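stage 2 :: seqdesign
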């Protein structure tokens, strides 16, 4: 399956899996920590997730600009729209 994906999506998958492992590690460490240390690990995990979103958007925009507006760039544009939409929802949402 990975052989049929465009190269930029394979690199994006590896980037996501790496950050996912780091975030999962922080959350698991937060579950086993005691006191305020658990909250610190959860905050570090959220920071790593935010860093993943920033790096992902920059990488996908770079992939679209470098490759042009081709049909194979539709997944990149979809991921950019989802990440940007979710970020806008978190920024402008009123609870």
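stage 2 :: out
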């Amino acid at each position: 399956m990975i052989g049929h994906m465009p190269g930029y999506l394979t690199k994006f998958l590896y980037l996501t899996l790496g950050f996912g492992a780091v975030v999962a590690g922080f959350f698991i460490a937060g579950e086993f920590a005691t006191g305020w240390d658990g909250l610190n690990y959860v905050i570090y995990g959220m920071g790593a997730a935010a860093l993943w979103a920033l790096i992902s958007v920059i990488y996908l925009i770079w992939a679209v600009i470098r490759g042009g507006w081709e049909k194979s760039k539709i997944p990149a544009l979809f991921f950019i729209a989802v990440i940007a939409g979710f970020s806008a929802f978190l920024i402008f949402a009123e609870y």
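stage 3 :: structure notes
- The chain has a mean pLDDT of 87.
- The two ends are 41 Å apart (CA to CA).
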